[in-house]
Each structure stands twice: as structure tokens, then as C-alpha cells.
Amino acid sequence: MGNSALKAHLETAQKTGVFQLTGKGLTEFPEDLQKLTSNLRTIDLSNNKIELLPPLIGKFSILKSLVLNNNKLTALPEELCKLKKLETLHLNGNHLRQLPAAFGQLSALKTLSLSGNQLRTVPTQLCALRHLDVVDLSKNQIQNVPDTVGELQAIELNLNQNQISQISVQISHCPRLKVLRLEENCLELSMLPQSILSDSQISLLAVEGNLFEIKKLRELEGYDKYMERFTATKKKFA
After folding, report:
1. Which UniProt keywords apply (predicted)?
2. Tens digits of per-residue pLDDT, 64-113?
């Protein structure tokens, strides 16, 4: 991509606060963006070949949305965690194995998509994020859901297409969790905590494609309580 084209993009971004450059085969984060650290509210560099995010990412002080789907990121810099205004972070289809230690400092974060990475566990840092609404961890290599999940503030947690065979009973204590997606995992019915049905806020539990028949779910204690929540929610949205 020529310099003049990039220059035009930068000029537009300066006026609009949006920098979008997708599917251009970029191998690195455009350095020229550092001129716009105080302008940009949105950066979208999806469908490129970026392997590293430079530390300068931490300088985009008003950034609200960062979209880097389908790149080649294997790690994220700690500096990313300085983005106090960041509300949306999409990192689907990369090679991430973990999140930076300070990730819980992204205090404004509402939507986090990490589908199609190489995470092996639900990152504990997510529990520090108080405004989180939607977390997508589908298509990773997660095998169990740890006790710390009880602190998670999310409204929707998507764990579809992982390798989950164990779930902590603490998941029933998530204060705001309404939607839990666990389709296509390795769950036996006996490993699904019954408290999810009998004693949680969850009103949509998606568990198709595990190691049990869905109709067996209906025989579990607490299923009727779950159905009451499910039906009440359906009416609300109908």
C-alpha cells in the first residue's frame, strides 16, 4: 500500500476519529498512527498480518474501540492496559495464549471478543472488569472453568467450541450472568453444576453438542426454576 493512500487515511482519521485499514496485508501496526494518539476513538486493523502491537498503543488516551480480528498476534503488550476509555476490544482469530497481567485495569471495557485463539483457561484478569457485558471465549482450548469465575461481572459468557469438561459451581454466583453458552464442549451431565439451574441468574443456558442428550437436562433438579427464568426473559423480549 502506497504512502499517499496511507496519508489520505490518516487525514480522514484526524477529522473523524476513526482509523480503519482492513485486509491490506499489513505486517505491522502503522507507526504513523502515533501522530493521532489524542484523536482516535476507533482503530480497526482486522484481516491483516500484524504480529505485534507496539507499546505506543498505550498512548491512545481516548480510544474506545480496538478491532484486530484475524491477525497474527501471539501476545499483547502490558501498555494496552493503560487504555482507560476502551469499551470494545475484538481480537478474534489470533494466536493469543494469555492476557497481560494488568488486563483488569481496562476499567471501561464492556465487550471482549477472543474467539478463535489459543487460551487454555478463563483469564482471571476478567474478574476485575466491573462493566463487562459480553465475553466471547469461543473456539479456544479451554478445558475447565475455575472457581474465580464466580467474580465475573459479565451478562453473557460464550464458551462454545472449547474442550470444557469441568465447570466450577461458583459460576452460579456470577451476579449479572444471564446467558451462558457451552455448546460443543466435552461436558458430561454430571459435571454440569445443578446450581446453574436451581440457584443462579442464568436465564439462557445453551449446552447442545456435549456428551449428554438435551432431554436429560430436563430431569435435573432445578430445571423448572431455570425454565421460569427462561420464560420470564422470553416474555420481556417478545
Report:
1. Leucine-rich repeat, Repeat
2. 999 999 999 999 999 999 999 999 999 999 999 999 999 999 999 999 99
Q: What is the DSSP string of 86-108?
A: --EEE--SS------GGGGG-TT
Specify the number of domains making up the chain: 1
Task: Count the neighbouring beta carbons within 10 Å of the beta carbon of residue 155.
Answer: 17
Kindly give, in sequence order, each residue whose CB lies less than 8 Å from that of residue 20, ignoring residues fewer than 6 positions away.
9, 42, 43, 44
Three-state SS sequence of 142-207: CCEECHHHHHCCCCEEECCCCCCCEECHHHHHCCCCCEEECCCCCCCHHHCCCHHHHCCCCCEEEC
For residue 64, being part of any structural domain is answered with yes
Cα distances from 153 to residues 81, 93, 130, 150, 160, in angstroms, run 18, 24, 6, 8, 19
40: amino acid identity, one letter? L
Cβ contact 46:67 at 8 Å: yes
Give the model's pLDDT for residue 132: 97
**Residue 112 to residue 86: CA distance in whole angstroms:** 10
Cα–Cα distance, 102 to 125 (Å, whole number) = 7
Residue 1 has pLDDT above 70, yes or no: no
Q: Which domain holds residue 59?
A: 1-118
Q: What is the pLDDT of residues 101-147, one digit of tens each?
A: 999 999 999 999 999 999 999 999 999 999 999 999 999 999 999 99
Of 226, 216, 203, 122, nearest in space to 164 by CA: 122
**Up-side HSE of residue 104: CA atoms within 13 Å toward CB?**
11
Q: What is the pTM of this model?
A: 0.95
2 part of a folded domain: yes
